[in-house]
Amino acid sequence: MKNIVVIGGGFAGLWSAASAARVADELNEAVKITLLNLDDQHSIRVRNYEDDLEATLVPLRPVLDPIGVALLVGEATGIDTDKHTVQVGVPDQGLRQLSYDKLILASGSHLARPPLPGLAQWSFDVDTHAAAQRLQSHIEALPKQPLRPGRFTAVVVGSGATGVELACELPQRLRTAASRAGRVNGLETVRVVLVDGQSRIAGHLGGAQVAIERACTALGIEQMPGTTVATVDADGLTLSNGSRIEASTVVWCAGLRADGLTASVPGERDAQGRLFVDEFMRVQRVADVFAAGDVAHALIDGEHPSVMSCQHARPMGRYAGNNAACELFGRSMLPLHIDWYTNIIDLGPNDAVYSQGWDRTVVAQGMQAKATKQVINRERIYPPRNGTREQILAAASTELQRPPVLKPVDMDR
After folding, report:
1. Entry pTM
2. Which domains are delineated in the chain?
Protein backbone atom coordinates (compact mmCIF):
# COMPACT_ATOMS: atom_id res chain seq x y z
CA MET A 1 0.00 0.00 0.00
CA LYS A 2 1.20 3.51 -0.80
CA ASN A 3 2.02 5.83 2.11
CA ILE A 4 1.40 9.54 2.55
CA VAL A 5 2.96 11.00 5.69
CA VAL A 6 1.92 14.39 7.02
CA ILE A 7 4.06 16.05 9.68
CA GLY A 8 2.11 18.45 11.87
CA GLY A 9 -1.45 18.61 13.16
CA GLY A 10 -2.00 22.35 12.88
CA PHE A 11 -4.11 24.17 10.32
CA ALA A 12 -1.99 23.10 7.35
CA GLY A 13 -1.27 19.55 8.51
CA LEU A 14 -4.79 18.60 9.53
CA TRP A 15 -6.25 19.79 6.23
CA SER A 16 -3.44 18.20 4.22
CA ALA A 17 -4.33 14.82 5.67
CA ALA A 18 -8.07 15.33 5.23
CA SER A 19 -7.68 16.54 1.65
CA ALA A 20 -5.49 13.56 0.72
CA ALA A 21 -8.12 11.26 2.23
CA ARG A 22 -10.81 13.02 0.20
CA VAL A 23 -8.94 12.38 -3.06
CA ALA A 24 -8.33 8.73 -2.19
CA ASP A 25 -12.02 8.35 -1.39
CA GLU A 26 -13.11 9.97 -4.66
CA LEU A 27 -10.70 7.82 -6.69
CA ASN A 28 -11.47 4.69 -4.67
CA GLU A 29 -7.75 4.16 -4.19
CA ALA A 30 -6.09 2.45 -1.24
CA VAL A 31 -3.51 4.56 0.55
CA LYS A 32 -2.24 4.75 4.11
CA ILE A 33 -2.26 8.33 5.40
CA THR A 34 -0.42 8.99 8.65
CA LEU A 35 -0.54 12.28 10.51
CA LEU A 36 2.42 12.71 12.84
CA ASN A 37 1.97 15.25 15.63
CA LEU A 38 3.53 16.05 18.98
CA ASP A 39 0.22 15.35 20.74
CA ASP A 40 -3.33 14.34 19.94
CA GLN A 41 -4.76 17.86 19.82
CA HIS A 42 -5.39 20.37 17.05
CA SER A 43 -4.59 23.79 18.52
CA ILE A 44 -6.55 26.86 17.45
CA ARG A 45 -3.33 28.77 17.96
CA VAL A 46 -4.65 32.13 16.80
CA ARG A 47 -6.89 32.29 19.89
CA ASN A 48 -4.06 31.89 22.41
CA TYR A 49 -4.18 35.59 23.24
CA GLU A 50 -7.60 35.11 24.85
CA ASP A 51 -8.05 34.47 28.56
CA ASP A 52 -10.42 31.50 28.17
CA LEU A 53 -8.50 28.71 26.44
CA GLU A 54 -11.02 25.92 26.99
CA ALA A 55 -12.27 25.86 23.41
CA THR A 56 -8.89 26.28 21.73
CA LEU A 57 -7.98 22.58 21.61
CA VAL A 58 -9.77 20.15 19.30
CA PRO A 59 -9.05 16.42 19.70
CA LEU A 60 -7.57 15.07 16.48
CA ARG A 61 -8.86 11.52 16.56
CA PRO A 62 -12.59 12.36 16.20
CA VAL A 63 -11.64 14.23 13.02
CA LEU A 64 -9.13 11.72 11.63
CA ASP A 65 -10.67 8.37 12.58
CA PRO A 66 -13.86 8.73 10.49
CA ILE A 67 -11.81 9.47 7.34
CA GLY A 68 -9.31 6.68 7.87
CA VAL A 69 -6.25 8.78 8.72
CA ALA A 70 -3.91 7.26 11.30
CA LEU A 71 -2.60 9.51 14.07
CA LEU A 72 0.93 8.88 15.32
CA VAL A 73 1.88 10.88 18.42
CA GLY A 74 5.59 11.53 18.32
CA GLU A 75 8.29 13.95 17.25
CA ALA A 76 9.87 14.00 13.81
CA THR A 77 13.60 14.41 14.40
CA GLY A 78 14.85 14.15 10.83
CA ILE A 79 13.91 13.57 7.19
CA ASP A 80 15.92 11.58 4.64
CA THR A 81 14.56 12.65 1.26
CA ASP A 82 16.81 10.15 -0.59
CA LYS A 83 15.55 7.15 1.38
CA HIS A 84 12.02 8.57 1.70
CA THR A 85 11.97 8.15 5.47
CA VAL A 86 11.13 10.22 8.51
CA GLN A 87 12.88 9.54 11.81
CA VAL A 88 10.37 9.68 14.64
CA GLY A 89 10.74 9.66 18.38
CA VAL A 90 7.70 7.93 19.87
CA PRO A 91 6.98 8.17 23.63
CA ASP A 92 7.93 4.94 25.44
CA GLN A 93 9.05 3.38 22.14
CA GLY A 94 12.20 5.25 21.19
CA LEU A 95 13.18 6.04 17.60
CA ARG A 96 11.54 4.48 14.55
CA GLN A 97 11.59 5.02 10.80
CA LEU A 98 8.46 6.01 8.93
CA SER A 99 8.55 5.39 5.17
CA TYR A 100 6.67 7.56 2.70
CA ASP A 101 5.82 7.71 -0.97
CA LYS A 102 4.70 11.33 -0.57
CA LEU A 103 5.60 13.57 2.35
CA ILE A 104 3.80 16.75 3.40
CA LEU A 105 5.77 18.91 5.78
CA ALA A 106 3.40 21.09 7.80
CA SER A 107 5.17 21.33 11.14
CA GLY A 108 4.46 25.02 11.57
CA SER A 109 6.51 27.75 13.17
CA HIS A 110 7.81 28.80 16.55
CA LEU A 111 8.43 32.08 18.28
CA ALA A 112 11.80 33.59 17.43
CA ARG A 113 13.60 34.38 20.68
CA PRO A 114 16.87 36.29 20.47
CA PRO A 115 19.58 35.48 23.05
CA LEU A 116 18.77 38.43 25.30
CA PRO A 117 19.86 38.10 28.93
CA GLY A 118 16.99 36.78 31.03
CA LEU A 119 14.49 36.50 28.19
CA ALA A 120 14.16 32.71 28.23
CA GLN A 121 13.94 32.55 32.01
CA TRP A 122 11.69 35.47 32.86
CA SER A 123 9.37 36.13 29.92
CA PHE A 124 6.08 34.61 28.81
CA ASP A 125 4.54 34.04 25.38
CA VAL A 126 1.37 32.71 23.75
CA ASP A 127 3.07 30.69 21.03
CA THR A 128 1.56 27.40 22.17
CA HIS A 129 -1.44 26.33 24.19
CA ALA A 130 0.83 25.33 27.07
CA ALA A 131 2.59 28.71 27.00
CA ALA A 132 -0.74 30.56 26.93
CA GLN A 133 -1.91 28.50 29.91
CA ARG A 134 1.28 29.39 31.76
CA LEU A 135 0.60 33.08 31.18
CA GLN A 136 -3.01 32.65 32.25
CA SER A 137 -1.99 30.91 35.48
CA HIS A 138 0.61 33.59 36.16
CA ILE A 139 -1.92 36.43 35.84
CA GLU A 140 -4.42 34.60 38.06
CA ALA A 141 -1.71 34.20 40.71
CA LEU A 142 -0.65 37.87 40.71
CA PRO A 143 -2.92 38.81 43.67
CA LYS A 144 -0.96 36.33 45.82
CA GLN A 145 2.37 37.94 45.02
CA PRO A 146 3.95 40.36 47.51
CA LEU A 147 2.84 43.97 47.31
CA ARG A 148 5.32 45.82 45.08
CA PRO A 149 5.55 48.25 42.16
CA GLY A 150 4.96 46.51 38.85
CA ARG A 151 2.87 43.66 40.25
CA PHE A 152 0.04 44.50 37.83
CA THR A 153 2.25 45.84 35.04
CA ALA A 154 2.60 43.89 31.80
CA VAL A 155 4.98 44.66 28.96
CA VAL A 156 4.23 43.15 25.54
CA VAL A 157 7.16 43.14 23.14
CA GLY A 158 6.22 43.11 19.45
CA SER A 159 3.30 44.90 17.81
CA GLY A 160 2.35 42.41 15.13
CA ALA A 161 -1.16 40.97 15.19
CA THR A 162 -0.50 38.69 18.18
CA GLY A 163 1.20 41.37 20.24
CA VAL A 164 -1.55 43.90 19.56
CA GLU A 165 -4.36 41.46 20.29
CA LEU A 166 -2.78 40.31 23.54
CA ALA A 167 -1.97 43.84 24.67
CA CYS A 168 -5.58 44.88 24.10
CA GLU A 169 -6.82 41.96 26.22
CA LEU A 170 -4.47 42.54 29.13
CA PRO A 171 -5.92 45.71 30.73
CA GLN A 172 -9.15 43.92 31.57
CA ARG A 173 -7.36 40.73 32.67
CA LEU A 174 -5.03 42.68 34.94
CA ARG A 175 -7.86 44.76 36.40
CA THR A 176 -9.70 41.54 37.25
CA ALA A 177 -6.59 40.20 38.96
CA ALA A 178 -6.02 43.46 40.82
CA SER A 179 -9.59 43.50 42.09
CA ARG A 180 -8.98 40.12 43.70
CA ALA A 181 -5.93 41.49 45.52
CA GLY A 182 -8.23 43.28 47.94
CA ARG A 183 -6.40 46.58 47.79
CA VAL A 184 -3.96 48.29 45.49
CA ASN A 185 -1.96 51.09 47.04
CA GLY A 186 -0.50 54.13 45.30
CA LEU A 187 2.59 52.25 44.20
CA GLU A 188 0.56 49.67 42.32
CA THR A 189 -1.44 50.43 39.22
CA VAL A 190 -2.69 48.39 36.31
CA ARG A 191 -0.36 49.21 33.46
CA VAL A 192 0.14 47.71 29.99
CA VAL A 193 3.05 48.77 27.80
CA LEU A 194 3.46 47.83 24.13
CA VAL A 195 7.06 47.96 22.92
CA ASP A 196 8.32 47.67 19.35
CA GLY A 197 11.53 48.49 17.54
CA GLN A 198 9.70 50.02 14.58
CA SER A 199 9.13 53.75 14.35
CA ARG A 200 5.36 53.25 14.79
CA ILE A 201 3.36 50.70 16.76
CA ALA A 202 1.89 48.17 14.29
CA GLY A 203 3.59 50.14 11.53
CA HIS A 204 3.63 47.21 9.11
CA LEU A 205 -0.14 46.69 9.36
CA GLY A 206 -0.88 49.34 6.74
CA GLY A 207 -4.18 51.15 6.87
CA ALA A 208 -5.12 49.37 10.10
CA GLN A 209 -2.29 51.07 11.98
CA VAL A 210 -4.23 54.23 12.82
CA ALA A 211 -7.18 52.25 14.22
CA ILE A 212 -4.80 50.08 16.28
CA GLU A 213 -2.99 53.10 17.69
CA ARG A 214 -6.29 54.76 18.56
CA ALA A 215 -7.63 51.62 20.24
CA CYS A 216 -4.46 51.22 22.32
CA THR A 217 -4.75 54.82 23.46
CA ALA A 218 -8.41 54.35 24.41
CA LEU A 219 -7.53 51.27 26.46
CA GLY A 220 -4.77 53.12 28.28
CA ILE A 221 -1.98 51.06 26.72
CA GLU A 222 1.32 52.91 26.73
CA GLN A 223 3.02 52.71 23.35
CA MET A 224 6.79 52.69 23.02
CA PRO A 225 7.77 52.53 19.35
CA GLY A 226 11.41 52.74 18.27
CA THR A 227 12.41 50.83 21.40
CA THR A 228 14.09 47.47 21.92
CA VAL A 229 14.74 45.29 24.95
CA ALA A 230 18.22 44.95 26.46
CA THR A 231 17.62 42.58 29.40
CA VAL A 232 14.79 40.88 31.26
CA ASP A 233 14.82 39.86 34.93
CA ALA A 234 12.48 38.72 37.68
CA ASP A 235 11.34 42.28 38.40
CA GLY A 236 10.93 43.70 34.90
CA LEU A 237 13.08 44.73 31.98
CA THR A 238 15.65 47.25 30.87
CA LEU A 239 15.25 48.88 27.47
CA SER A 240 17.96 49.67 24.96
CA ASN A 241 17.70 53.37 25.81
CA GLY A 242 18.63 52.58 29.40
CA SER A 243 15.18 53.13 30.88
CA ARG A 244 13.70 50.63 33.31
CA ILE A 245 10.17 49.21 33.61
CA GLU A 246 9.21 47.36 36.77
CA ALA A 247 6.87 44.58 35.67
CA SER A 248 5.79 41.16 36.88
CA THR A 249 4.74 40.17 33.37
CA VAL A 250 6.85 40.42 30.22
CA VAL A 251 5.37 38.77 27.13
CA TRP A 252 7.48 38.21 24.01
CA CYS A 253 5.50 38.39 20.75
CA ALA A 254 8.22 39.48 18.33
CA GLY A 255 8.46 37.32 15.25
CA LEU A 256 8.07 33.75 14.00
CA ARG A 257 10.45 31.30 12.39
CA ALA A 258 9.68 28.12 10.45
CA ASP A 259 10.12 24.83 12.26
CA GLY A 260 13.68 23.51 12.19
CA LEU A 261 12.67 20.39 10.24
CA THR A 262 12.96 22.47 7.09
CA ALA A 263 16.74 22.09 7.47
CA SER A 264 16.32 18.35 6.80
CA VAL A 265 14.97 19.07 3.33
CA PRO A 266 17.56 20.05 0.69
CA GLY A 267 15.48 22.90 -0.66
CA GLU A 268 16.05 26.63 -0.78
CA ARG A 269 14.70 28.55 2.22
CA ASP A 270 13.78 32.19 2.84
CA ALA A 271 14.88 34.45 5.69
CA GLN A 272 12.29 32.90 8.01
CA GLY A 273 13.46 29.38 7.22
CA ARG A 274 10.48 28.57 4.98
CA LEU A 275 10.92 26.22 2.04
CA PHE A 276 10.12 27.64 -1.38
CA VAL A 277 7.24 25.76 -2.98
CA ASP A 278 5.60 25.97 -6.39
CA GLU A 279 1.92 26.59 -7.06
CA PHE A 280 1.17 22.93 -6.34
CA MET A 281 2.85 23.15 -2.90
CA ARG A 282 5.75 20.96 -4.06
CA VAL A 283 9.10 21.82 -2.52
CA GLN A 284 11.17 23.09 -5.40
CA ARG A 285 13.62 20.53 -6.81
CA VAL A 286 12.89 17.91 -4.10
CA ALA A 287 10.96 14.90 -5.35
CA ASP A 288 7.87 13.69 -3.49
CA VAL A 289 7.98 16.37 -0.79
CA PHE A 290 5.26 18.98 -0.37
CA ALA A 291 5.14 21.76 2.22
CA ALA A 292 2.27 23.87 3.54
CA GLY A 293 1.55 26.49 6.14
CA ASP A 294 4.25 28.28 8.09
CA VAL A 295 7.09 26.09 6.74
CA ALA A 296 6.29 27.01 3.13
CA HIS A 297 6.98 30.13 1.09
CA ALA A 298 4.43 30.26 -1.73
CA LEU A 299 3.59 33.11 -4.05
CA ILE A 300 0.00 32.99 -2.97
CA ASP A 301 -1.33 35.13 -5.83
CA GLY A 302 1.67 34.78 -8.13
CA GLU A 303 3.25 37.89 -6.62
CA HIS A 304 2.94 38.14 -2.82
CA PRO A 305 4.51 35.57 -0.46
CA SER A 306 2.14 33.62 1.75
CA VAL A 307 1.71 34.90 5.29
CA MET A 308 2.31 32.87 8.44
CA SER A 309 -1.35 32.67 9.39
CA CYS A 310 -4.24 30.22 9.33
CA GLN A 311 -5.72 32.29 6.49
CA HIS A 312 -3.09 30.82 4.18
CA ALA A 313 -2.18 27.65 6.08
CA ARG A 314 -5.63 26.10 5.68
CA PRO A 315 -5.90 26.39 1.86
CA MET A 316 -2.20 25.57 1.44
CA GLY A 317 -2.83 22.39 3.42
CA ARG A 318 -5.86 21.43 1.37
CA TYR A 319 -3.95 21.89 -1.88
CA ALA A 320 -0.85 20.10 -0.59
CA GLY A 321 -2.92 17.07 0.44
CA ASN A 322 -4.95 17.10 -2.76
CA ASN A 323 -1.87 17.36 -4.96
CA ALA A 324 0.21 14.82 -3.07
CA ALA A 325 -2.56 12.25 -3.53
CA CYS A 326 -3.18 13.24 -7.15
CA GLU A 327 0.51 12.99 -8.02
CA LEU A 328 0.68 9.63 -6.26
CA PHE A 329 -2.15 8.26 -8.42
CA GLY A 330 -1.16 9.97 -11.66
CA ARG A 331 -3.96 12.54 -11.66
CA SER A 332 -3.77 16.22 -12.56
CA MET A 333 -2.84 18.56 -9.73
CA LEU A 334 -4.46 21.90 -8.89
CA PRO A 335 -2.50 25.16 -8.64
CA LEU A 336 -3.28 27.33 -5.64
CA HIS A 337 -4.07 30.95 -6.40
CA ILE A 338 -5.68 33.27 -3.86
CA ASP A 339 -6.40 36.73 -5.21
CA TRP A 340 -7.48 38.37 -1.97
CA TYR A 341 -6.03 39.08 1.43
CA THR A 342 -7.77 40.11 4.64
CA ASN A 343 -6.57 41.02 8.10
CA ILE A 344 -8.81 41.30 11.16
CA ILE A 345 -7.19 42.40 14.40
CA ASP A 346 -8.98 42.05 17.73
CA LEU A 347 -8.72 45.24 19.78
CA GLY A 348 -10.09 44.35 23.17
CA PRO A 349 -13.57 43.54 24.48
CA ASN A 350 -15.55 45.80 22.14
CA ASP A 351 -13.39 46.63 19.18
CA ALA A 352 -11.59 45.24 16.14
CA VAL A 353 -10.34 46.47 12.78
CA TYR A 354 -10.96 44.66 9.48
CA SER A 355 -8.77 45.48 6.50
CA GLN A 356 -8.57 44.06 2.99
CA GLY A 357 -5.88 43.91 0.33
CA TRP A 358 -2.11 43.91 0.67
CA ASP A 359 -2.19 47.62 1.50
CA ARG A 360 -4.65 46.74 4.28
CA THR A 361 -7.42 49.17 3.49
CA VAL A 362 -9.82 49.39 6.43
CA VAL A 363 -13.36 48.27 5.57
CA ALA A 364 -14.85 47.92 9.07
CA GLN A 365 -14.12 48.81 12.67
CA GLY A 366 -15.72 48.46 16.06
CA MET A 367 -18.36 45.84 16.82
CA GLN A 368 -19.02 45.07 13.16
CA ALA A 369 -15.41 44.00 12.69
CA LYS A 370 -15.51 42.27 16.07
CA ALA A 371 -18.51 40.17 15.04
CA THR A 372 -16.75 39.10 11.85
CA LYS A 373 -13.60 38.24 13.81
CA GLN A 374 -15.60 36.00 16.11
CA VAL A 375 -17.21 34.18 13.19
CA ILE A 376 -13.73 33.41 11.88
CA ASN A 377 -12.03 32.55 15.17
CA ARG A 378 -14.86 30.60 16.75
CA GLU A 379 -16.54 28.93 13.77
CA ARG A 380 -14.89 29.15 10.39
CA ILE A 381 -11.39 27.87 11.20
CA TYR A 382 -12.59 24.86 13.20
CA PRO A 383 -12.84 21.40 11.67
CA PRO A 384 -16.20 19.64 11.93
CA ARG A 385 -16.56 18.47 15.50
CA ASN A 386 -18.54 15.26 15.91
CA GLY A 387 -18.80 15.26 12.11
CA THR A 388 -19.55 12.31 9.89
CA ARG A 389 -17.07 10.96 7.35
CA GLU A 390 -18.96 12.74 4.59
CA GLN A 391 -18.98 16.06 6.45
CA ILE A 392 -15.26 15.94 7.23
CA LEU A 393 -14.28 15.01 3.68
CA ALA A 394 -16.55 17.73 2.30
CA ALA A 395 -14.86 20.27 4.58
CA ALA A 396 -11.51 19.29 3.01
CA SER A 397 -12.61 20.45 -0.43
CA THR A 398 -10.18 22.57 -2.45
CA GLU A 399 -12.95 25.11 -3.08
CA LEU A 400 -11.57 28.34 -1.65
CA GLN A 401 -13.51 30.20 1.01
CA ARG A 402 -14.03 33.83 0.09
CA PRO A 403 -13.55 36.55 2.71
CA PRO A 404 -16.39 36.59 5.25
CA VAL A 405 -19.30 38.89 4.57
CA LEU A 406 -19.57 41.74 7.02
CA LYS A 407 -22.53 41.21 9.29
CA PRO A 408 -24.77 44.08 10.36
CA VAL A 409 -24.63 44.69 14.11
CA ASP A 410 -27.62 45.34 16.34
CA MET A 411 -26.37 48.35 18.30
CA ASP A 412 -29.18 47.92 20.88
CA ARG A 413 -27.86 44.54 22.04
Report:
1. 0.95
2. 2-110+256-339 (3.50.50.60), 113-252 (3.50.50.60)
